[in-house]
Please model this.
Amino acid sequence: MVDITDAEAVLAAHARTEDEIGDVSILVNSAGIAGPNHTLDAYPLDAWRRVIDINLNGTFHVNRAVVPAMKARNYGRIVNVASIAGKEGNPNASAYSASKAGVIGLTKSLGKELAGYDIAVNCITPAAARTPIFDQMKQEHIDYMLSKIPRARFLEVDEAANMVAWLVSKENSFTTASVFDLSGGRATY
Model:
């Protein structure tokens, strides 16, 4: 386990992993927190910083740690987990929405930087899935998210896993800097 807000700890974890297990050719960065639900004007500053630090800065640190070795080997697959909230925003979730929008932008930028290598960098933008992150949310926020999904259900974790499995496979040799919606029809762009 590593604190992804600590850049040095992430670099050390990557080095340890490569020493003990072997080359890291796949990264699925899914660490994230929801943060509290408040209007922006009432959003606690410490909570804002924590959400941004884990969701966005942590994504930066983890991607930054694996990229040099992937470039040296001319191979890698990176999938960052963003959220449909990063594309559309959720009311009373400004920190989460902003952090996930940042993950989308980071993914697109890095995917273009690495396009000359056999390194694919993509992200998924799932609608809500019933995972432990729900424990951080008020029921009214969970109900709001469900009301926005035309399929009228939450994403199943195995549905997301199947998309990620293809994105990290060798078969994905062309697609990079892309965003894949798993929104049950919620996405409007």
